[in-house]
Amino acid sequence: MDGFVLKGDICWSESPNEIKAVADGYAACLDGACLGVFQSYPESLALPLVDMSGKLVIPGMVDLHVHAPQYPFRGLGLDLELLEWLGEHTFAEEGKYGDLEYASRAYKIFVDDLAKGPNTRACVFATVHEASTLALMDAFEKSGMVAYVGKVNMDRNCPGNLLEESAEASLEATKRVIEGSSGYSRVKPMLTPRFVPTCSDELLRGLGELSERLGLALQSHLSENKSEIEWVKRLCPWSESYTDAYWKLGCLNSRTVMAHCVWCTDFEMDLISKSGAFVAHCPQSNINLSSGVAPITQYMEAGLNVGLGSDVAGGCHTSMLRAMTDAVQASKLRWRLFDQSVRPLRLEEAFYLATKGGGRFFGKVGSFEPGYEFDAVVLDDSEVKSPFPMNILDRLARAAYFCDSVSAICKWARGKRVAGA
Amino acid sequence: MDGFVLKGDICWSESPNEIKAVADGYAACLDGACLGVFQSYPESLALPLVDMSGKLVIPGMVDLHVHAPQYPFRGLGLDLELLEWLGEHTFAEEGKYGDLEYASRAYKIFVDDLAKGPNTRACVFATVHEASTLALMDAFEKSGMVAYVGKVNMDRNCPGNLLEESAEASLEATKRVIEGSSGYSRVKPMLTPRFVPTCSDELLRGLGELSERLGLALQSHLSENKSEIEWVKRLCPWSESYTDAYWKLGCLNSRTVMAHCVWCTDFEMDLISKSGAFVAHCPQSNINLSSGVAPITQYMEAGLNVGLGSDVAGGCHTSMLRAMTDAVQASKLRWRLFDQSVRPLRLEEAFYLATKGGGRFFGKVGSFEPGYEFDAVVLDDSEVKSPFPMNILDRLARAAYFCDSVSAICKWARGKRVAGA
């Protein structure tokens, strides 16, 4: 038997409407799975105690959308909108990842920093390069975190050094990466067509078939920016909408994560709902690149699968604690300035999205309910000083608003300690 | 002669359009004033060197609007709009400051935390309580930071324990605090009518006269929230607008800071411009309380005096580095979702607002131009890792976006070292 009992001030979401909290509680982990949270030490389990009394304990957080190669230029060049920003900043940096030495060095910084934060899971874009994508997978595997990592596919509308020769060549390279990653237990490959503008119909159709045949997860971008949407209309005149293009090409199902979905119509919302695809809501990126704000409470009420994404480097911050407050703040301005029919997001809903909401893409992940994979983060919030005592839920709210003053002093994914935190 | 030369990677604003930067530069301070920034060590000055090579050096930052007694509940209760939030959270906490022991303890946490950040100057609201307001002044004076601190005036529409007996009693208490603060050199008193809803015409008129007679600075709130604006219309039927109410009562001139100004009409904008009053733009607070976003580039282009404010605890974060990115982000969503006639704020403009823009309220403050008071902050940005070298302006952008990962390792106000940083 391999397990332990983690003592602390524990909180977690089971639904968007409520945060459960147990002060001085005990979360039990056995063989990587959670046995539940107990008010007193579960002696009958005969598991060793990890005593984090006084510290906040939350489920490992889930970043449904992040670009690892963009981490080096986070915080820079944010005066542009999406398509210009891609051209001037993103593609220039991603071009460097053909150099495995550079890629390894840059990815190490990214994964090391991620290990220090509150996230334990991520859906990650690499670049089009095979070797550096495998290097990124390797870094994740060694970190102890759990991730889907995708080699990017692009066979049109990008600079020559990132352009794959043909749809077929792109598919073949993707298959090689999938084979190359077969030895990993914590990292899985993910099909990663960048987005419609850089992927031919043939490539998308091929990836859709591959996803279907091998049961592979797939991630892409959908309806982020108005100019992008217009472009897709011109590129796919046969589709009824951006969403419909992915749908008809076989790239929209319950194994899919679509980032953004800022400007989806009701028709598209229904299609996403029907498909079972996950929406990665990336509020900070959508602000930084002046894209807009997705109507996220509307999506939740319509039953869509929603989680949060950092979208580094459209967003600057990897921490899903930060994404929680970004999501709440963005929703307030959307409500105030744009559409009072969609109510703002509450902080407890944002916490759900950052844990169980995104975790559902990985299975039973993101909660301390019995049977869930044991992902847990211990937060030291003692630097957020107060002249009076705070309850756990208030401390959690402050951990979100002051995420950079709150240290993740240790964390586990699937019951295994993540190094570096 | 009392002075020193500070070596580092120095940057500062002289205008909103450009950030000056000197790598491995030397900023000279003599008797509290800046002699300028030099490319090489100014030997002729014969001043000792403070070597901060490799560190970023920026002017001390200026928070034009912060509520010290609200610091304890920062990050909490932000699901409400202004008027409900005042009733449920703010007034409840401010009531505690009748207890000098509690006030001293809470204010120590606030001032100690502020000393660790990049701000060197602030315009601060205390509460209605005389003794604790003087305690707050004392804490600022000892810290080495420079501040205007105001005892709040309220003679209507607030809970009984915060309600002053009459306009006259409120004015008398204010005069006592002014007298009590006469011994301070770094702290000045500031007249602080909370806002029209809690101040009778008589009280505002009396404070306007006092400001005129003694040349005192005055701070208040203006046009933050739509319900508040409607309320002011009912309370001051004789005024043409919220701004006009302050103007006619003698509370709007070049010694005035008005926080927010989110929903001002063109008429009000002209009045603010004519008066020479400063606008404290508080983007995060205006987001958190779902108030809206002030059209800040329009104000700047119209020649209004503008600086940034944290508005803790409507805003959560005291750092003006954070306020810079909040301001840029808020302006982008305002542009995208609400009004494309007002362009988004650029980061260099936000840096100007956070330094010289707000600093102008204090005189020649917020820049390293010769003759400016020497307020400087040394930032260690080594935790913001990168696989390639960055220029100073990119490092400054990242210091703003990752302000909590960037330590203010030392700082000076008027040439004097601030303890705690």
Q: How would you state the average pLDDT of chain A, rounded? A: 97
Give the termini separation of chain A: 25 Å
Percent of residues in β-strands of chain A: 15-25%
What is the name of the CATH architecture of the largest domain in chain A? Alpha-Beta Barrel
User: Biggest interface, which chains?
Assistant: A-B, 47 and 47 residues
Which superfamily, in CATH terms, is the homologous superfamily of the largest domain in chain A? Metal-dependent hydrolases
Describe it.
2 copies of one chain form a homodimer. With 421 residues, the first copy, chain A, is α/β, with parallel strands linked by helices. Chain A folds into 2 domains: 3-59 and 368-417, Urease, subunit C, domain 1 (Roll); 61-362, Metal-dependent hydrolases (TIM Barrel), CATH 3.20.20.140. Chain A has helices spanning 82-94, 100-115, 130-143, 167-180, 201-214, 226-235, 242-248, 266-275, 283-288, 296-301, 320-337, 347-359, 392-401; strands at residues 3-15, 18-30, 33-38, 49-59, 61-67, 119-125, 146-150, 152-153, 187-193, 217-222, 256-260, 278-281, 305-308, 376-380, 407-413, 416-417. In chain A, strands 5, 6, 7, 8, 9, 10, 11, 12 and 13 form a 9-stranded parallel beta sheet that branches. In chain A, strand 8, helix 4 (167-180) and strand 9 (187-193) form a beta-alpha-beta unit. In chain A, helix 2 (100-115) packs parallel to helix 3. The longest helix of chain A has 18 residues, at 320-337. At the A-B interface, helix 2, helix 9, helix 11 and helix 13 of A face helix 2, helix 9, helix 11 and helix 13 of B.
